[in-house]
Design goal:
Layout (H helix, E strand, L loop, with lengths): L1 H20 L6 H20 L11 H29 L2 H8 L3 H9 L7 H17 L4 H30 L5 H23 L5 H24 L5 H23 L6 H17 L2
Length: 277
């Protein structure tokens, strides 16, 4: 259980540190690149990887799936930064966790899994919550599209991990994570060069601060599954992270939610529970 709690805290810290860095680090893309440097180094360190490209029949597939996942990781983080600026820290973190809809639908369509009634109810409630979040006016609509994009990117990354578990070589699990973060790092560096973003000490400091909980969130969740059943770990992780982010957002950043958004948040929490029952 301690690993599950640490996973929740790490996931919450990703959103909170990004929120803190917004006005303290001038170059958002450079900050993300440093984050991926840290994640890549920690992936190599904890996996004990010696050969970057080991001789294996499954290497091309691992590279392909890791590359796609890395692109989705980067898209998710770029959208998370954008959404935090537009919507605060609570709603973006919530929609990122709501991305479990994507691997759920993938399992139904691609792997022929039959959803149970609670999962169908969860999908329906999630869609209802998205509609409830939408308000009148151009700003609200733009914010909603950004939140839905975040949901799809985060959920897509989770879905690719599920695809690798289904068809990828188990012996290259650590390399898959290494290729994922490495791809995100390369693409993020390219974007930095295109945008001609500088790298200052604030970007390095906050990028490293984001990268540590970003890596450990995934690692602790995997470790928790060795002692906690998945049907308990996943909904607890999702709901626990949302509760922690909401509490920190209100207590530390003075964020306030309208009654409509409080209702939507409650519906999303219920949807997450049902999706993982």
């Amino acid at each position: 259980m301690i690993y599950l709690i640490l996973a929740m805290v790490s996931s919450m810290l990703v959103s909170v540190v990004m929120r803190l860095s917004e006005n303290r680090s001038p170059n958002g893309m450079s900050r993300l690149a440093v984050n991926y440097v840290m994640c890549t180094l920690m992936s190599a360190l904890f996996s004990g990887t010696v050969q970057l490209f080991p001789a294996s029949e499954g290497l091309p597939l691992t590279l392909l799936l890791g590359g796609i996942t890395g692109m989705l990781y980067l898209a998710g983080f770029v959208l998370l930064q954008w959404n935090i600026r537009r919507n605060g820290v609570v709603l973006p973190a919530t929609f990122m966790k709501l991305g479990v809809i994507v691997p759920t639908l993938l399992a139904i369509v691609a792997f022929g899994e039959t959803p149970r009634l609670p999962q169908l109810a969860g999908i329906g409630l999630a869609l209802a919550a998205i509609i409830l979040i939408q308000g009148s006016g151009k700003t609200e609509t733009g914010s909603l599209l950004g939140l839905v994009g975040l949901l799809l990117a985060g959920g897509g990354a989770d879905a690719m991990s599920k695809v690798f578990e289904q068809i990828g070589p188990a012996a290259l699990n650590d390399h898959f994570l290494l290729y994922t973060f490495g791809t995100a790092l390369i693409l993020c560096t390219v974007l930095c060069l295109v945008k001609k973003q500088r790298l200052v000490w604030q970007d390095i400091l906050w990028g490293l601060a984001i990268g540590v909980p970003n890596y450990f969130s995934a690692r602790f969740l995997l470790l928790s599954l060795t002692s906690v059943p998945a049907v308990v770990a996943y909904p607890s992780f999702s709901v626990g992270t949302i509760v922690l982010v909401t509490a920190v957002g209100m207590l530390c950043f003075g964020e306030r939610l309208s009654r409509r958004k409080w209702i939507a948040l409650g519906v999303i929490l219920l949807a997450l529970i049902l999706l993982n029952v």
